[in-house]
Amino acid sequence: MYTVRQAGPGDLAGVRAVARRFGNLGQWPHRPDYLDRELDNGRLTAGFADGVVVGFGATFARGGLTHLADLFVLPEHQSSGLGRTLLTRLLTVDAPRVTFASSDPRAVALYIRQGMRPICPLLYLRGPLGALPGPGAARPAGPGEEAGPDAVAAVAVLDADASGGRRDADLAWYAALPGVTTVHTGTGYAMVRDTRDGVQVGPAGGQTTRHCTDAVLAALARHRAAGTATLCLFGPNPLLPVLLEAGFTIADMDVFLSSGADPLALDRYLPHPDLG
Ligand SMILES: CC(C)(COP(=O)(O)OP(=O)(O)OC[C@H]1O[C@@H](n2cnc3c(N)ncnc32)[C@H](O)[C@@H]1OP(=O)(O)O)[C@@H](O)C(=O)NCCC(=O)NCCS
Question: Per-residue confidence at 147, pLDDT binned at 50, 70, 90?
Fold first, then answer.
C-alpha cells in the first residue's frame, strides 16, 4: 500500500506539506530551511500512498553518530506500518544513533525496539532575556567573540567534543544562513538564529559545564535586544534552574533516546531542535 524511497527535489513540496501539518516549520520562516538541508544531505526519505507524500523521515550525521531528526506520518495514515518502514530504511546500520522523541507512544516504542533507550528529558524553554545573569556570573570570563568564517573550524572541534561527532559541513551551512551568528569564547560556542519571534540558541556547548554555561549566557547577553529566546536543554544541564529562575517557561518536552555509549555530553551540550 505504501512505497518508501529516498526523497528527490520533486518530492520536497509534499514533504513540506506533511511537515506543516505538524507545525515543524514555525521556526523557519525563510528558505533554505532544515528540510532543504536534509534533502541536500541525501538523508531525506519519503513515504507515498498513491504517489502522494503521506510521511517522511530524515537523519543528520555527526561523525559515526546518526541523529534521527524527523519521523512523521499524516494522522489519516498512522498506525498502518509506514512509520516503522521509514525508520527501518533510515537506520539500517547497527551504528550509534540518537533521537528526540515526542510523547507519542508509537514513536517511543518504535525507537526502543530499534535499539535505542530513553535517557533523559529534553526540555524546550522559552523566555525573556531581560532578567538573565551575564556570562561569568560565578567566575570572570570574556564576553565571547563573534566567530568569523576562520573560527568555524575551531567551533566545529568544540561542537564535536560536546555533541558526539564532526559535522563541519552542516555547521558551515547553518552559520552562513541569514540571521545566524556564532559566539566563540575559546572554550565554548553558541549559535544563535533570529527567528520571527526572538532568537533560537543551539547548537551550543563547551569543554566543561561552566564553559558551556558561559558561552550560552554570553550569546544571550549579546542578543538581549531580541527580547525572547528559545533553547532546548537535556535534563542534567545546570542552566535549567538558572533559566527558570529568570522567568523562562517549559514550552515542550521530548525524550532523549540513545543506542548507548553516551555520545553526547548531556550537561554541556545544547542541541538544535531540528539539526540535533
Ligand atoms: C510516531 C509515528 C511516526 C509512527 O508512525 P506510524 O506509521 O503511526 O507507526 P507504525 O504503524 O509503523 O508503528 C507503530 C508501532 O507502535 C506500536 N504501538 C502503538 N501504540 C503503542 C503503545 N501504546 N505502546 C507500545 N507500542 C505501541 C504499534 O503496535 C506499532 O508496532 P507494530 O507495527 O510492530 O505493530 C506516527 O504515529 C506519527 O507521525 N505520530 C505523530 C508525530 C510524532 O509524534 N512523530 C514522532 C516524532 S519523534
Answer: low
